[in-house]
Amino acid sequence: MTDAGGLVPYLAELERKVSEHHRLAFQSKDGESDWQLLLEEGEMKVYRREVEEDGIVVDPLKAQNVVKGVTAHEICHYFWDVDIRMEWETTVEIVKLVEKISDDTVVVYQTHKRMWPTMQRDSLFVSSIRQVDTGDDEGPSWVVCNFSVDHPSLPVSNKCVRVKLNIGLVCQTLVTPPADGQPITRDDLSCKIAYAAYVNPGGWVPASVLRTLAKREYPRFLRKFSAYVQGKTKDKPIMF
């Protein structure tokens, strides 16, 4: 483990956030008055809770989905791996690995595509992937947790507004046992996904624009990323 950026104090916070994302991941929001169901499409549900802080829209979003033919490890791996992020992430211009803290935890810097008429945004965050024991019959989950940090090599500049974020992706593999003891194939697999995002854009963005964009882009992201992972893994050995 390295700590060139003085990030060890963030590691306790990382453990707390991973635990929180995992605990809350698959709790239903149906019937909760402060959560709005934005979209229901097959297995996919996307919820939003309208929140403003100091006049800035910071609506938390939660989404759940089931993806066929992939595992929890595969979904989380492709979401976490910095080297391939530009293959599926269409909202950023630059992705940079700032520091490797350990084999499963890194610091990442991104610049995001500018949304007119606002200033361009950037983000700097710890990103960690790990397997978490659920303590039940469904087996372990895989979790990716991203949350904002400071780093001396990348102070806030006047060229971008620094976004603050806290994002959790929690996945569980579901297996339909093959008949007659046959080997498990991708036809027997599905992955239950829970995605939670809190993003503070760090400055003024028109509320109507931000909420319209979120309503459109979060479902689009889930569809596109899920299809991307299915395409990348279909001819590869299963990664449990």
Structural write-up:
The chain has 240 residues and is of the alpha+beta class. It contains three helices and twelve strands; from the N terminus they run αβββββαβββββββα. Strands 1, 2, 5, 6, 7, 8, 9, 10, 11 and 12 form a ten-stranded mixed beta sheet that branches. Helix 2 crosses helix 3. The longest helix has 27 residues. The model has no long low-confidence stretch (mean pLDDT 91).
Key structural traits:
single chain; 240 residues; alpha+beta; 10-stranded mixed beta sheet; two-stranded antiparallel ribbon; 12 strands
Quick description:
This protein has helices at residues 8-24, 72-80, 207-233, and strands spanning 36-41, 44-48, 52-53, 56-57, 61-68, 92-102, 105-112, 121-132, 141-148, 161-162, 164-175, 189-200.
What's the arrangement of secondary structure elements?
Blueprint: H1 8-24, E1 36-41, E2 44-48, E3 52-53, E4 56-57, E5 61-68, H2 72-80, E6 92-102, E7 105-112, E8 121-132, E9 141-148, E10 161-162, E11 164-175, E12 189-200, H3 207-233
Parallel strand pairs: 8-10
Antiparallel strand pairs: 1-2, 2-5, 3-4, 5-12, 6-7, 7-8, 8-9, 9-11, 11-12
Helix pairs in contact: 2-3
